[in-house]
Write a structure and sequence with these properties.
- The chain has 743 residues and is α+β, with helices and mostly antiparallel strands.
- The chain has 3 domains: 135 residues, no CATH class; 251 residues, Phosphatidylinositol 3-kinase, Chain A; 193 residues, Alpha-D-Glucose-1,6-Bisphosphate, Chain A, domain 4, CATH 3.30.530.
- Helix content is 42%, strand content 11%.
- It contains 26 helices and 12 strands.
- The strands form 2 sheets. Strands 3, 4, 5, 6, 7, 8, 9, 10, 11 and 12 form a 10-stranded mixed β-sheet that branches. A two-stranded antiparallel ribbon has the order 1-2.
Length: 743
């Protein structure tokens, strides 16, 4: 007796066993996810799904993150299944045989459809895929595997494992691991496969995984023990790479949104962006006439390379040296005439940026009041207009047990330049509180004096010098809501002063939830391992490939590069995205220098202190060849230590010179001044002669300075590259004095 296969047959017992095995693997893999609330969350029966959703613990923000992942899943495989098949797998029609009418096509379309055959086995579920075709596909895969074991067969998985974001990540990871097969030198036969191109813009290597991990067998105890030892003491924000910060900020956004939804009455729908009824477009002001006061932090960073102006940092240092014992510091007002004179002196310039003695003629209260005015006149306050209300709401509505995690999440969501400036200010204020027995300024007293200058929506009358872009305080007697916000802002700033070190350290539990990959961790490799996986002999072969690529980049037309406007029109800056999985862009800066290439290359190699204003210390760790060494240098602020392998060549064609640098790990390169270890993914200089004793200087750079997100690099790093080349160009400028001669 023969039976015809219906359009949606019931699964056999063998298929059920196979699906149970796949489901077990899915549960094991999902248990590793940091967003799984319970190990039994995947075992809920279909009939009890609604009850399970009602009984979900909403106190944890991770439940919101799961819904966010499902809603924003980027997997296109879900669109492959037809609407009929989705209806059959859910609801009333689950497990029932339903006849669907066949669709009729025109003759021309039928002919085209008959000619094209697609393999949809990986996109259909088990109930839709006929068992006969399944067995034929499995047998053909086994034959191909047995005939050629060196070739990795395509992974075809049926069932619901092919749908969703987790399965897409699994397929991509499996494909990447399978295709990274090193080509041995003793291969024989007519293998015409092309040699893999060197990963030119970073030197990171994927860690080798064991056979059990490659097959998906994971020991949860070993994973937990290794991660616990890896993040045993927590990780400071300034030590994290840009890829790690990108992941941690996503978790912070989910965490803060979950707490706001649960506890805040005004945050029922997530973030509380209260828009006015009539939105007035704010015209971007012009900051050309301003130098210090009233300039956004990001503009100061793009102009001078510092988050805070250098004169403001010197004012903090002067107060630390001379005014920590002054009673009522930041509480007692200064003399307005002396403060106005000090501001005009700073704003006019007159070479006061490198002199601390400009404050010697003023009282400590004048300098402290000037500091308060600087932060009050920022166009966007230090805690930003976007996050101030949410930070205040944390101390109004959230319970104490979750307050620390919520505040840390808000700090992570601040722009990088605001977070760095806030850390600098809190470090100074904490030193003031240590001398509270002399100056009578505790953390609470400082919070009362400084909160109106740092927050956005704090009620009360504002000074006339406040930025016009800030919200104006209400006049008259404050109501109960305004008083509550004011008290919460004082509690917030006092809490930040007392616990800023803990808030800037990500706990080990939070780090384990993120599950970083090797590209996000961005760890340099040792000298011996450089180029091991890239089909080059050793580090010499890797550097040789980098030199060739640098010369090739200088000859080719700038395709794919996007220009960036900078403050120096003589330096052209470009950027482009590199499709290697790392979030950092590749930057290129080009200018013309009035010197031959040999002088410029010696200036870059041996006189870094003349063109890098942030250099604190440098040394040569080891000299490997006549044209190769291991170089270590330290820059600030904050203090960042770099250890690079650099090689130069002065004998290129047509008199050109090349320098290539890449970060490595070296036993003799311990941190010189403390700080963190930065990573130079790629730094290359091409110097070509262009006649009349001049040369063209091109700098390719991709550097992770640690503690900043990719958005910070997108806005600021191109301007930093421009500042380096501007100083090199200025060093070789020739000035002629006297009247122009008449010929």
């Amino acid at each position: 007796m023969s039976f015809s296969n219906p359009s949606s047959p019931r699964t056999s017992a063998a298929d059920h066993r196979r699906d149970n095995t796949l489901g077990t693997n899915e549960i094991v893999s999902n248990l590793l996810s940091p967003y799984t609330l319970s190990p039994f969350g995947h075992m809920v029966d279909d009939n009890n799904k609604k009850e399970h959703k009602r009984s979900t613990n909403r106190s944890s923000p991770l439940h919101f993150f799961i819904q966010l992942q499902e809603a924003k899943s980027g997997d296109d495989s879900s669109s492959i299944c037809s609407e009929d098949s989705q209806d059959l797998n859910t609801g009333y029609f689950a497990g029932r045989v339903v006849k669907t009418p066949s669709k009729k096509y025109p003759k021309a379309k039928k002919l085209l459809r008959n000619k094209v055959t697609a393999d949809d086995s990986g996109a259909l579920s088990d109930s839709e895929y006929q068992s006969k075709l399944r067995r034929a596909k499995v047998s053909s895969d086994l034959k191909e595997t047995s005939s050629n074991t060196l070739q990795v067969s395509k992974l075809n998985r049926g069932g619901s494992l092919n749908l969703g974001k987790n399965s897409k990540r699994y397929r991509d990871a499996f494909h990447n691991r399978s295709m990274r097969v090193a080509k041995t030198s003793d291969e024989k036969g007519g293998d015409d496969r092309k040699r893999t191109i060197v990963a030119r813009w970073h030197s990171f290597q994927q860690p080798k995984t064991s056979e059990g991990r490659r097959m998906g067998i994971v020991d949860l105890k070993d994973d937990g023990a290794r991660d616990k030892g890896k993040y045993s003491t927590g990780t400071s924000i300034v030590e994290m790479s840009c890829g790690q910060l990108l992941v941690v900020r996503k978790l912070a956004l989910v965490t803060l949104t979950g707490y706001m939804e649960r506890y805040c009455p005004t945050h029922r729908s997530g973030w509380n962006w209260d828009l006015p009824k009539f939105i007035k477009r704010i015209k971007t002001p012009d900051y050309k006439d301003k130098k210090v006061f009233g300039i956004p932090l990001v503009h100061n960073l793009q102009r001078y390379g510092n988050t805070l102006p250098e004169i403001i940092q010197m004012a903090l240092t002067w107060l630390e040296l001379n005014a920590l014992d002054q009673v009522g510091l930041f509480r007692k007002p200064g003399v307005k005439s002396r403060i106005a004179k000090l501001k005009s002196t700073i704003e006019s310039g007159n070479n006061v940026s490198n002199r601390m003695d400009v404050f010697d003629d003023h009282h400590a209260y004048d300098v402290a009041d000037m500091m308060k005015q600087y932060f009050r006149e920022l166009p966007d306050p230090l805690l930003t207009a976007k996050l101030s209300e949410n930070i205040v709401a944390i101390f109004q509505y959230l319970p104490i047990e979750v307050r620390s995690e919520a505040v840390q999440s808000a700090i992570l969501l601040l722009p990088d330049e605001h977070r760095e400036a806030l850390y600098t200010l809190l470090t100074f204020l904490e030193k003031v509180t240590r001398n509270a027995c002399q100056n009578q300024m505790t953390a609470n007293n400082l919070a009362v004096c400084l909160a109106p200058s740092l927050f956005y929506s704090i009620s009360g009358n504002r000074s006339s010098t406040a930025s016009p872009r800030r919200k104006k305080g209400a006049t008259g007697q404050p109501d109960e809501k305004e008083l509550s916000e004011t008290r919460a802002s004082h509690d917030c700033l006092s809490y930040l002063i007392q616990h800023y070190r803990t808030l800037w350290t990500i706990s080990s539990d939070r780090m384990r939830k993120c599950s970083f990959n090797y590209m996000e961790e961005s760890k340099p490799v040792p000298l011996e391992s450089l180029g091991a996986e890239l089909h080059v002999q050793n580090w010499r072969g890797y550097l040789s490939e980098c030199i060739k690529e640098c010369v090739r980049e200088g000859k080719e037309r700038p395709r794919g590069w996007v220009s960036l406007n900078t403050s120096d029109p003589t330096v052209t800056v470009y950027f482009k995205k590199v499709g290697d999985g790392h979030p950092l862009r590749l930057w290129k800066a080009v200018t013309e220098v009035e010197a031959p290439p040999t002088e410029v290359i010696n200036h870059i190699l041996n006189e870094r202190h003349l063109w890098d204003d942030h250099l604190l210390k440098s040394r040569i760790v080891e000299r490997l060849d006549a044209d190769t060494d291991v170089y270590q240098y330290v820059c600030g602020q904050p203090i960042t230590d770099y250890c690079v392998l650099r090689q130069w060549n002065k004998q290129q064609s047509r008199g050109a010179c090349v320098i290539v640098e890449v970060s490595i790990t070296h036993n003799g390169a311990q941190l010189l001044l403390g700080g963190v270890r930065g990573v130079v993914l790629a730094s290359r200089y091409l110097i070509e002669p262009c006649g009349s004793g001049k040369c063209k200087l091109m700098h390719l750079s991709r550097v992770d300075m640690k503690g900043r997100t990719p958005d910070w690099y997108n806005k600021n790093y191109g301007h930093i590259c421009q500042q380096y080349l501007s100083r090199i160009k200025k060093f070789f400028e020739h000035y002629t004095e006297g009247p122009e001669s008449k010929v």
